[in-house]
Amino acid sequence: MTDSRARILARIRTAVADAPEAAPVARDYRTSHTPDAPEALLDLLHENLADYRAHVHRTAPAGLAALVARLLAERGARSVVVPPGLPEEWLAATEAARRFDEPRLTPYELDGTDAVVTGCAVAIAETGTIVLDGGPGQGRRALTLVPDLHVCVVRAPEQVVASVPLALPRLAPARPLTWISGPSATSDIELDRVEGVHGPRTLEVVLVTEP
Amino acid sequence: MPAFPEAAREAVGNPTLRANLRHATHTIRDKRARAVAELDDWAALRETGKRIKDRTLRQLDTYLLQLEEAVTAAGGTVHWAADAAEANRIVTELVRATGETEVVKVKSMATQEIGLNEHLAAEGIAAYETDLAELIVQLGDDRPSHILVPAIHRNRGEIRDIFREKMGSWGRPAPEGLSDAPAELAEAARLHLREKFLRAKVGISGANFMVAETGTLVVVESEGNGRMCLTLPETLISVVGVEKVVPTWQDLEVFLQTLPRSSTAERMNPYTSMWTGTTDGDGPGTFHLVLLDNGRTDALADEVGRQALRCIRCSACLNVCPVYERAGGHAYGSVYPGPIGAILTPQLRGTASEVDASLPYASSLCGACYEVCPVAIDIPEVLVHLRGKVAEEGGKGHRLERAAIKASTWVLDHPGVLATGERLASATRKLHPKRLPGPGARQWTESRDLPELPAEPFRDWWRKNRT
Ligand code: SF4
Q1: How are beta strands A192-195 and A185-189 bridged, if at all?
Q2: Which of A211, B85, B192, B338 measures 20 to 30 Å from B447, CA to CA?
């Protein structure tokens, strides 16, 4: 094993010994393709999420609990996973049974749960992406993977950025990250897009804006 | 394995296959053009992507060592595999150590390249492919024909038949009365695979990127099968080519913009997973990274050919290639088909076999592949370079050379291929030799010049004809 390490490194060094120095990396692409206006950003995020068949809703903080309860009820969710650190008031109005992840739910238990409600770390308008980093209110990665319905709450404007280059500096690489752009989908059968192969088949995104 | 012209002849004679391929490649390429047009700094992103990769390759030893240190510090274990046999051995031992006899797999070119599934099967370990297309290929006892959509050559009726006949022998059978509607087929795959995900103790993946400075691995996917394999098992083993490393966290901002738009023509693929070593309480408690050489350092030593290692496997070059569209992925005799396969395979494996020697000729040199490549790999340049090598190594009248000449004759004898090729070719004019290099090629070009190429720049033609 150590032999191969030394051998591969030696082969690399021999292979590039005569190669010219590489050109410097110029970064003259854009950091963002969108004007810096919070309202427009939110509209773009909304549009791009919807384009990839996420369902998008907007509410003021006061309406959040009722909206979450309605979304869970509309999809017939009778049980919901509650990630550690999820603000209690988000689930104040739902009748769905709460399942906490302490001790850790088994994959089978998660599979037997209808929905999960989470927050997020950041949302990217240009690509219609929400990013989870396992922070408070998000939980470990499996929680947003196995249940069939994911309700994700985005706080605007502070969690919304325009672009991928603006999102990366806000994320910590040491944490496990999941970038989600619309629900699970496949195009493997004659390139017809079908939602929901293995991940949640329904993604409801709630944009919470100050009135 | 037959050389390219033989293999291609079979594909060209199969109307179902050709119709499936044509529909698929044209759909993706049109969508891709729209997705790329949304970013007015595409040219700058492409140039930066190219430079990042060139820089990485120039100092590959440094970045791999940095990566190893970061992954180790984050709780992972790094292994180095010089070739396929060693990689297979390492993975087998790691699976054995868990006491398990089955694993779930994320679609990965590297593990296909080394024939990991077959090796594991021989060692009594069942490896289940979980990507829908890979599942179709695996159940159908077939070979993948496209980098991104490996079952592109199958239509819905064929897929239904495969599911009906084969699912039962691998696990949960297909539902009664399964139709050929894509939604029903996807649902059948969901049910079939879910039982495997929930009980899986070992997952095996590749990676799209590895970040040297942080030790982070990145997998982009659509279905969520990747997330299942990466997060539910207790042990995760990732087999990744050494060329997949990028220096910095910031570098991801370039490739996460160019890869999805070039491959699935989306602004972003549905799921991207990033992990760094292991994390307490989230995901596998044990993580192994197997760094794979398997011919990559040979490619690195070729001053013209090394640019093929910049490839981020987006598959855009396949979808625009007039030869791929007609010949299909299987004709290339490798897990890497299409234009990138034509330059990567002979470099990774050498040109000692007929099929490998014929690959640099499996092209019309039209240049469309270079135009779409998000890391600006000059595929036509490498093709011409490799033709020279094959001709030199072959010697006069050698069988390899004959295979190669036959391949180019095949391409140039197919008016459809050539017509598309000629019209697209002007962008690479400077690269077109009047005569093919090498002594063997001469006997062929003596009787006919390479086709004349029009002066109209490719972009103009594209704009007029495609948009
Ligand atoms: S060679 Fe370029 S276009 Fe082809 S798959 Fe690789 S990155 Fe994509």
Answers
A1: antiparallel
A2: B338
Please judge whether B267 and A184 are an interchain contact, meaning their C-beta atoms are less than 8 angstroms apart: no
Q: What element of type H or E holds B265?
A: none
Q: Take atom 7 of ligand 1 and give the residue whose Cα is closest.
A: B311
pLDDT of residue B413: 67
pTM for the predicted model, two decimal places: 0.91
| Mean per-residue pLDDT, A48-58 | 95
CB A180 to CB B271 under 8 A? yes
Looking up residue B327, the CATH number of its domain turns out to be: 1.10.1060.10
CA angle in degrees (0–180, nearest 5) for B225-B82-B51: 70
Token pair 């806000």 is found at A170
Cβ distance A178 to B227 less than 8 Å, yes or no, reads: yes
Instruction: Judge whether residue B54 has pLDDT over 90.
Output: yes
Question: Does the residue B288 lie in any domain?
Answer: yes
Contacts of A200 in chain B (CB under 8 A): 224
- Verify whether ligand 1 is closer than 6 Å to residue B125 (CB atom): no
Domains, chain A? 35-209 (3.40.50.10420)
Yes or no: say if B237 and B264 are a contact pair by the CB < 8 Å rule: no
What B265-268 contacts at long range (C-beta under 8 Å, 24+ apart), as own/partner pairs, is: B265/B28, B265/B31, B265/B32, B265/B34, B265/B35, B266/A52, B266/A181, B266/B35, B267/A48, B267/A52, B267/A126, B267/A127, B267/A128, B267/A181, B267/B35, B267/B38, B268/A124, B268/A127, B268/A128, B268/A129, B268/A164, B268/A179, B268/A181
> Rounded to whole angstroms, how far apart are CA atoms B330 and B153?
10
pLDDT of B130 higher than 50: yes
DSSP per-residue letters across B45-99 = HHHHHHHHHHHHHHTHHHHHHHHHHHHHHTT-EEEEESSHHHHHHHHHHHHHHHT
Is B25 part of any domain? no
What are phi and psi for residue A118, nearest 5 degrees? -140, 170
Do B389 and B402 lie in a common domain? no
B344 shares a domain with B434: no
Is residue B199 one of the residues assigned to a domain?
A: yes
Ranges A122-136, A187-201, B328-342, B362-376, most confident: A122-136
* Residue B174: inside a domain: yes
Of B373, B393, B413, which closes a domain? Answer: B393
- B365 and B423 in a common domain: no
Domain boundary among B377, B393, B409: B393
Report the CATH number at residue B124: 3.40.50.10420
Domain range for B352 is: 305-393
- Print burial letters for B186-223: b (CB count within 10 Å at least 16), e (below 16): bbbbbebbbebbbebbbbbbbbbbbbbbbbbbbbbbbb
Query: How many angstroms does the Cα of residue B314 sit away from the middle of ligand 1?
Result: 5
Give CA separation, B312 vs A90, B4, B243, B256, B316, in Å.
41, 24, 9, 11, 10
Enumerate the β-bridge partners of residue A82.
Answer: A100
Number of domains in chain B: 3
* B126 and B192 in a common domain: yes
B396-405: pLDDT as tens digits: 556 666 776 6
Query: Given this model, what pLDDT does residue B104 score?
Result: 97
CA distance B262 to chain A (A): 14
A1 by Cβ neighbours in 10 Å (0-12 / 13-18 / 19+) ranks as exposed
Interchain contact A27–B (C-beta under 8 A) = yes
